[in-house]
Specification:
Elements lengths: L5 E6 L5 H12 L2 E3 L2 H10 L3 H7 L6 H12 L4 H5 L2 H18 L2 E4 L3 H4 L6 E7 L2 H12 L3 H22 L12 E4 H20 L3
């Protein structure tokens, strides 16, 4: 029987974590989830995907968001009682658990390593990179200046850390929170993928 494996990829913004996660999924022939998780959470909860997009890996948006929608909901609407940062996180967590129950997966971000911490065959990885490489990647991807890209990298990391640290008992980006931490600038994307795949194969006895 083929082993049911879960690979979780945490990453700094611009580190190439999405690319690496996608490559791992392709090479191990398993399902890949990044932004796709937002669709799953929306389907699971019955709420519009835009709520999950605005809450994606950052906390504290809800008061502003609810204020902008309050004329629509009204004080008596049941959504007003159900929607919160915590409830959106719960819906997303439920979607992650159900996906992991169905099949082997690679999850990128969104506290999946903590949510699935009791899974028997799991590998938790964190991808970092040197700031110049991160800036270049983000600037090219978003077609913005390097100065703007640097601000996005810094702000993105701050939001991910706040979100992760709030919902888990671990520290975002800290080595003790993961099985393997790797700097993708050291060996490049291809080299990093190779190292990670060797590690996964050994840890899970594949």
């Amino acid at each position: 029987m083929e082993k049911h494996i879960i690979i979780n990829v945490g990453r700094q913004l611009g580190s190439g974590g999405h690319i690496i996660g996608n490559r791992l999924a392709e090479d191990f022939n398993i399902k890949f989830y990044d932004k796709e998780l937002l669709n799953l959470a929306a389907k699971e909860s019955g709420f519009d995907k835009k709520f999950f997009e605005r809450n994606d890996e950052h906390k504290g948006f809800f008061k502003v968001l609810f204020a902008s929608f309050s004329p629509i909901f009204g004080n008596s609407d049941p959504y007003a009682n159900q929607l919160s940062d915590e409830s959106l996180f719960k819906f997303q967590s439920d979607a992650i658990r159900k996906a992991a129950e169905r099949e082997s997966c690679v999850f990128v971000g969104r506290c999946a390593d903590y949510i699935l911490r009791d899974h028997p065959d799991i590998v938790n990885i964190f991808i970092t990179a040197n700031m110049p490489d991160r800036i270049k990647r983000v600037a090219e991807l978003l077609q913005i200046t390097e100065k703007e890209a640097e601000k996005k990298c810094i702000k993105g990391d701050e939001m991910r850390a706040e979100y992760y640290n709030y919902y888990t008992s671990k520290t975002w980006g800290s080595a003790e929170s993961y099985d393997l931490c790797i700097n993708s600038s050291a060996l490049g994307i291809e080299g990093s993928v190779g190292i990670i795949e060797d590690f996964i194969a050994q840890k899970l006895c594949l």
